[in-house]
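Worked example

This section walks through a single chain of length 241. The input is the sequence exactly as stored; nothing has been trimmed or padded.
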Amino acid sequence: MEDLNITHCVASYECGADHCLKPDSFMHYCQEAAETHASRNNLGYEWGASNNLIWVEVQGDFRFIRRPQWKEEITIRSNTGKASALQARRFVELQDKEGHVLAQADLLWVLIDVNTRRPMPFKRLINGINIPEACPAIIDQVLEPATEFIRTETAEFTAPRRDVDFNGHINNSAYLTWVLDTLPEDMAPAAAPARVRINFKKETFAGQPIRIEHHLAAGKQTRHTVTSDGELRAELIIVWE
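Given that input, the structure is written out below as tokens.
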């Protein structure tokens, strides 16, 4: 497949108080790039709906080198390929006008049968699926999670309706937003995340009770678990600037 290249001007609502792109806004870029590129290759939302399938992200690894500023013109580049019989790997990269890399994402997606809510192997699709055999990881440094923590705090709330996407469940970017919104300020080692890794474990729906445990490790790492009704929904690792 050919790379997707989209030119975009960073909007004010995509930025924080520092006038720089928010981490969850980059996640939205990744979702839009995935849909746009998939649709151009006849594998997007409409194709999935006609086959009772939806693309679901199961893992995201995000690296921020320099967060672009409000009104800055950037290029969003993306492509995809098979990672396994069940998973497709997608990379997304932000570049400035000079071609310098600003941020990168390494994403794993699966096709879910909307009736069984289970992953669909690519080879079982009636009409096949035209995904290249491999997609190299754009982030080659493995993020090792800390195992010892010096402080833990919890937050509890109800999953809001505003975070539901058109697949009917909580949007992936909401988990990072929830973590950043409820993390005590004195637990954030620095101003902004430099690296975020998210593993998505199970769908969450509006109205469900949410419990987040924030764990502070030595150095510049925090670890976060998002649960509902005692079941793990997502786990996040953040390395701070």
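What to look for: The mean pLDDT is 92.
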